[in-house]
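Known limitations

Structure tokens in this collection are predictions and should be treated as such. Users comparing against experimental data should check residue numbering before alignment. To illustrate the layout, the record for Aspartic proteinase Asp1 is reproduced below. The input appears on top and the generated tokens appear beneath it.
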Amino acid sequence: MVKMNVCLMILLMVMSLALGFSSAVDFRWRKGGGFSGRFTRGAGGSSVVFPVHGNVYPLGYYNVTINIGQPPRPYYLDLDTGSDLTWLQCDAPCVRCLEAPHPLYQPSNDLIPCSDPLCKAMHMNGNHRYEAQEQCDYEVEYADGGSSLGVLVRDVFSLNYTEGLRLTPRLALGCGYDQIPGASSHHPLDGVLGLGRGKVSILSQLHSQGHVKNVIGHCLSSLGGGILFFGDDLYDSSRVSWTPMSRENSKHYSPAMGGELLFGGRTTGLKNLLTIFDSGSSYTYFNSKAYQAVTYLLKRELSGKPLKEARDDHTLPLCWQGRRPFMSIEEVKKYFKPLALSFKTGWRSKTLFEIPPEAYLIISRKGNVCLGILNGTEIGLQNMNLIGDISMQDQMIIYDNEKQSIGWIPADCDELASLQASAAQVYEY
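Generated tokens:
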């Protein structure tokens, strides 16, 4: 029912645009289960919405297209709520660049000096040594071993509000002239869209310039694609499941209270799990203890079922095969129990982040079903647990930095993407 309300909300918005009822559109659902036919701009301005492309498998990434520079040129940027800096592979010249779908970014002459507040915010630990005062050097490293080295510049980003108005702010980004690919980076990319909580993130910069609320969200479809949005006009807060953000772990989108892992609706006994929502990770990673518990419970549950381990399928560490190849998760999900993470939201209240089988399984090219939850401790994540794209599919995930809360609500992300594209066409017309 919630999914229907989400789509109805966007559908009405698109219809109103097409009929010309209002030039300023408010996407919000109304409290009380109804939807108002009166469209007004939300407090604090409209949202910015991007169509998302990609999938968990077989591509292994989601990205958006953003036009940057003067004149504006399109670049494909991978979504990453786990890091702050947005960077492009850059002809500065490039010392070491990866395969890219577009020509390398030609940097503007607007270098950011090391005295700039954004540069200082990037190097808050105080250990950075500036080689040149007139430029701010950066180096970002990712959990999969990838990295980017370069300098900060400012350039024009060409964006559109949901009501069609053009927005062209000058924002800081990285001109990356030395990239090392990570173990999970097997696709051409122009760069990374840093969506974290830090001051240098694109969202934080847009917010500090007064363009949008300090809220970000995404809806990734299990069929591929979806939407990314900045601002708070696309949802009714009263219908969202919320949990407070951690103030201690301020670098990541992490619930304040550790999660309790449930299997089939029952506790596994694993509590206080440090959890991070990370759109830059295709798969979900549990620490060794949680991973071993899940794999043990799954294997026990599958005992006697018409599935056996497919040891010759190396798509992911753990795969199972049936009597014949599977075509979809629908055929096999009946053999698997749902997982969930329970987060405390108050003294006695809790909120549940559900992970059904379709949010932790994939069907490999060989027609086997594989576990999309991996052992994070083995790749250096220590005790952290990452909720990756696979487990955030078909949900609207919201990171409200103003209220310091993370929220989620089931949604038909494929339908939302289609309606958003329709709305964009109306504005172009």
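For this record: Helices lie at 2-19, 117-122, 202-208, 288-302, 389-392, 413-428. The domain at 48-212 is CATH 2.40.70.10 (Cathepsin D, subunit A; domain 1). Please report discrepancies through the issue tracker.
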